[in-house]
Design brief:
This protein is of the alpha/beta class. It contains 15 helices and eleven strands. Helix content is 41%, strand content 15%. Helix 3 links the parallel strand 2 and strand 3. The protein is globular and about 55 Å long. GO terms for molecular function: nitronate monooxygenase activity.
């Protein structure tokens, strides 16, 4: 299959500009490995990992991806929430493990001290006995954050997350098309720009590449795959859904949210939200929610989903002979780019 060459695919040495989002409780090592094996780029989400299992996941990835020698870069990435890193302890330990294992990329998002962690990674790399540069990906929801990521933090890759993205994002984020256009107009010679938010197929990717993106992040589409860590009920919920909404209900159900100011999340609308609208007492809502979690009852538990969830209509394997999702999306991208050329002449 033909490769698609962009600043991002050349930087990562991959054949398709499809990136797996590092979703907590979704993007496990198996999913990241399969996306990378398919020619895309996999990220592992870390917020629910313990150090021992995480270290084993990275060792497994090194073996499965055919990386020879412990000093060779591991061609995938790991995602970290800035506000969890600020709390130290386990999350910082997970970052140290990833750096020790020479992952190619680290994804940083949602924190008031991201610059501190950029410097932490740079310092770690500078002290290695064998040279290795970790690529730092920064998530930006606004032109202001994008400017800091490029000018101050010298991000290697900038992820532009629009309001369409499933899971957490800024409540005042622009639509992706507007955010991408704005940042592209200001930083045409900057790092690779990766578009995130509501992307589930190759046609959408083609449109974003034509607008100036160098790659795209897919979350919801990969959440509804055999390999994702979502439960079978959550995956069916994605397939049956037609839309999602932005809300703080699921974050506040356990008390005050620890996410930075302005952050909320996009999820499927369900009884947990209906309970708030009906004025159900908080303690009762909390009881009902935890009972639902125990029973994997998706009528109340959180199912994070982007704005294009209505276009997700199956639960394929990420990489197999019968229905290879990465190659399917890549072929849709190729076909769409060919179709676009037909408008000329």
């Amino acid at each position: 299959m033909l490769p698609v060459w962009t600043k991002l695919t050349k930087l990562l040495d991959v054949r398709t500009p499809v990136v797996l989002a590092p979703m907590g409780a979704v993007s496990n090592g198996e999913l990241a490995i399969r996306v990378s094996q398919g020619g895309g780029y996999g990220f592992i989400g870390t917020d629910l990992n313990d150090p021992i299992s995480f270290s084993k996941e990275l060792d497994t990835a090194r073996s499965r991806l055919g990386v020879v020698g412990p000093d060779a870069p591991l061609p995938l990435g790991v995602g970290y929430l800035g506000w969890l890193l600020d709390k130290g302890n386990r999350t910082q330990q997970l970052l140290n493990i990833a750096l020790e294992k020479r992952v190619q990329s680290v994804w940083l998002s949602f924190g008031s001290n991201l610059g501190k962690w950029v410097e932490y990674v740079r310092q770690y790399d500078s002290q290695r006995t064998i040279e290795h540069k970790t690529l730092i990906w920064i998530v930006a929801n606004s032109l202001e954050v994008a400017s800091r990521a490029i000018n101050e933090w010298k991000a290697d890759v900038l992820v532009l997350q629009g309001c369409e993205a499933g899971g957490h994002g800024h409540s005042e984020a622009l639509p992706l098309i507007s955010l991408l256009g704005l940042v592209k107009s200001k930083f045409s010679n900057g790092p690779p720009l990766v578009a995130a938010g509501g992307i589930v197929n190759g046609a959408q990717i083609a449109g974003l590449l034509l607008m100036g993106a160098d790659g795209t992040v897919m979350g919801t589409r990969f959440a509804a795959t055999v390999e994702s860590s979502y439960s079978p009920n959550q995956k069916r919920g994605l397939v049956e859904a037609t839309k999602s909404i932005r809300t703080l209900v699921f974050d506040t159900i356990n008390g005050p949210t620890q996410w930075p100011d302005g952050i909320n999340a996009r999820a499927l609308r369900n009884k947990a939200i209906f309970d708030v609208e009906a004025g159900v007492d908080f303690e009762e809502r909390k009881r009902l929610y935890h009972e639902a979690v125990k029973n994997d009852d998706t009528s109340r538990i959180a199912i994070w989903a982007g704005s294009s969830v209505g276009l997700v209509n199956d639960i394929p394997s990420t990489l197999n002979k019968n229905k290879d999702l990465v190659n399917q999306v890549h072929q849709e991208l190729i076909d769409s780019l060919r179709d676009a050329s037909g408008f000329l002449g």
